[in-house]
């Protein structure tokens, strides 16, 4: 009977609880996988009740029905789609369970203790309150369960179906497990053991129970011999247990076989088939799913899943997962499941895991990489994960990959409110036979090649600006895991096609976004940023300043972004004319323009328009640039020659001999207490070179730029053009009082006039911009009109 019972239930994944409970005679649950949580702690105090409440709230997405049980030192909570996820046996044992009938767990436990629980069909999790022993028993039977050995406010431990729930409930800090993070970056996973991405949270290994009582916690094995799964048979059972199922075509052959199997399901609507569309960058998935749909005679709905949707969804997706994910296919699954749910489906059959389970081979595409990145070189000193003999940790095993696929499907399903069945995310009966059973299921004319889950390389190249900005961010620099400079250099090589390590860079980016979501303090909710009016100062800046006893107003002018090749003279003249109209309409400051007024122009927009701004990945730093940049004092503003890219531009602008001479003079000057000699020798054009800054708007956050060419000529041409424009507009008085145009490099550190056609000395304008009224963040105000008011 035992073998028959296993045969009846094996192949149902951790998100297949509906089918399992239906066959076991248990009531059907809602479309959300249930979840359990609780604690073992002190017998008294409001902290226990608060902990249970917080845990239940953190798992609210796993079902609207909540049941709680508290007795002595133990508290249990369960969330499910419908009541009935807890049970109290005749001996008083209380069971909360997800993925199985809790009464069956209570019966087996009463009959033979923990060991007899191995005879129950997986996957499921349960927590048992044993009153006779005053013990808590946690069981992970094919599904994940997490616990915190030293939970805050609980003199014992707390547990939950998801690690993020323990953090969200405030029972565990979000401190990372650095070794686990590094292992993930190096290998893409690791064995499905106890370590998690959170230092204070452990995973209860699958096939184990944890018995907790007054003497401590003891692990007990409940392993059972589980026969391999017939993946397609498991798919048929899942289809039979769903009222409105949907099927995802994906991974080529596995998805096509799944769709062909589903096609034979009675009463399955022809509209139940979905596939991901990676267009416009990659249309091969659309062509493949179209060919499969034509062979089956069904309509396949395309779900837009591409680099742009990934960028928009990634923070939310990682909040759902609670930890980084190695396979971008799990995001594809999430996006398709979300669309299927919105279309009314209550379950989604997904082919995830099939490539690992069946040992399928995906043919490599694209040109061969010229070299590979050694992942350990991208890690901070001392953070590399190695085996005892000093070699890098091996890549994640197939079993670990399948476990991650099941976990990801479970969490996505819980958040989206749709069952996600993954019948291939298990060891399969014909593993190693090249997917023979899958190929046999295909109808005539259906293609049977194997495909990647997502075009990772294409997506990362499409998002290179965003990713590069992430790698430049202060938060990334301060992580204990990465060597930022090496990561940037390697990513530049990836962008330029020198390496094809897309999966590695995906993992690095994924870890950083996860860290931002879970580890970094969240800023307080702020009111939406208000765009300043035309006659207002920028935020935290002042209109007025006193220079040499004279009161002056500086009006920042907001513009759209400038790009290479722009006719900056025409555009700037247009912005000035618009500003003049605002002054005339308002009237408050009009009389001040009877006296001299000036236009000050940020050198950035001139340099950008002239094509003298470069994306970081388009600059090839020389050995000299990388070496000299190491000796430059870094500023908190990201400005100067402290990066290889800006140093390379300095060498190109002034020549290597001059830069080396300036460096030598600077070093000698510092020895005797004199500073600032470097730029005196290198020149103003070198001083004006800027590097990428995290706080700037795109593309400044991923660019380095030279000073504008011929800034004096630029100033003179702008002045002449503005005077002519105002005269033609019937405003000769304003044209006559325009006393000059200045091109200036200003920031919070210093000011430097680069070009001028004005009647006052450069020092005056540098003092006029002493408080940097234009700002350097997202203000988008590269122009300012200055007028004297007293």
Automatic annotation (TrEMBL):
It holds the Pfam family Asn_synthase. InterPro entries: Asn_synthase, Ntn_hydrolases_N. Residues 380-402 have a biased composition (Low complexity). Residues 257-350 form the Asparagine synthetase domain. SUPFAM superfamilies: Adenine nucleotide alpha hydrolases-like, CofE-like, N-terminal nucleophile aminohydrolases (Ntn hydrolases). Residues 380-404 are annotated as: Disordered. This is Asparagine synthetase domain-containing protein. It comes from Cryptosporangium minutisporangium.
